[in-house]
Design brief:
alpha+beta; Cytochrome Bc1 Complex, Chain D, domain 2; elongated; binds dinuclear copper ion
Length: about 325
Amino acid sequence: MIYVISVIFFALIVGLMVTFVVQFRRRKGYQAEDSPPHNTRLEVIWTVIPTLLCVLIFYLGFKSFLNMSTPPANAYEISVTGQKWQWFFGYPNGHTASELHVPVDRPVKLVMTSEDVIHSLWIPAFRVKKDVVPGRYSKIWFQAIEPGDYPLLCTEYCGTGHSDMLSRVIVHEPGGFETWLRDADGLLDTLPPAEAGEKLYLTKGCTQCHSVDGTAGIGPTFQDMFAGSFATRDGATIVVDEDYVRESMLDPAASVIAGFEPVMPTYAGKLKDKEITMLIAYFKSISRHAPQEPASSDADSDHSDQPDLPDNPDNLDHPEDPDHSEEK
Ligand code: CUA
C-alpha cells in the first residue's frame, strides 16, 4: 500500500512540476506577475490529506509491529544460541542441532541469546531479523507457510568467522517435523561410533573452524590430529588423546595448540558425554597416528558391535612416534 501511495504521489508531484515548468516558462512579451500571498483552501487540502495518510500508515505499521513482536501463545519454542561462529538450536526434548528445523503452518518462537558478542539472526525468506545479545534474551517468531530449505545467517559483524555463520532453516512437511525430532536424537545410537562422530562434526558447527582435509582454519584441522603431538601456546608439548579432546571441548582455552588463538567457545552443555566419545571415535578414524579399526568406512551396522581392538601389530602407528611431532 505504501508502494502504491508513493507511486501516486511521485506521478502527481513530478507530473505537475514538469507541466508547470513548460506552461509557465519565460516567454517574450510576458511580464511576470507577483506571486499570490496564499490560498487557504489549497493549503488545507495539501496539509490534511497527507497527514491523514501518514496517520493511516503509522496505524497499519504499528499494528503489524505489535503483531510481529508478540508471539502467539501457542507458538512452538526453540532456543537459539549464537556464538563465534555458529548457531545452536535447542528443541524442547533436549536435542540440539546447528540447523533450524521447524514444522510448517505453525507459529515458531525463537528465544535467542549469545555466548560472546552481539550476533544477529536473519532469515530473509521469513522477513525476520533480530540482534542476539549476550546476557539477555531476544525473541522473534514466524510461521513458515511452505516446506523447504531456506538460508539463515548472521547479519552483525562478529569477527573473523562472521561470514561463515551460516545455517539453514528446514521447514518440514506436515507431520515430518515430529518424526525428524523423534529420530534425530536416537539416530546417532544406531550408527557405528565413528560415523556418529562424523555426523556430529557436520551438525554441531565444528566445520566452521576445523577442516578434516589438513588445511588449518580458525582452529587446527582434525585430520591426523588424534594421537599426534603438538606444541601448545605456552610452549608445552601435548599428545592429543581422549582426555585432551574432551578438555578442549569443555574448556577450550585450557591448552591451545601453537599458532591458533584461544577463541573457541565451550561446548559444555552442548555435547553429551556419549557425543564426545563419538567425536573421539571419528577423530581416530581420520588420523594416521591412531590405530585404525578395519572397515571403518564400511557402513555395515554389525561392525559396530565388535570393534577390533588395536591389538593387531600391523595397525600400530605408534602414537609417541617423534617423527609425527611436527604436525600442526
Ligand atoms: Cu555472528 Cu556475525
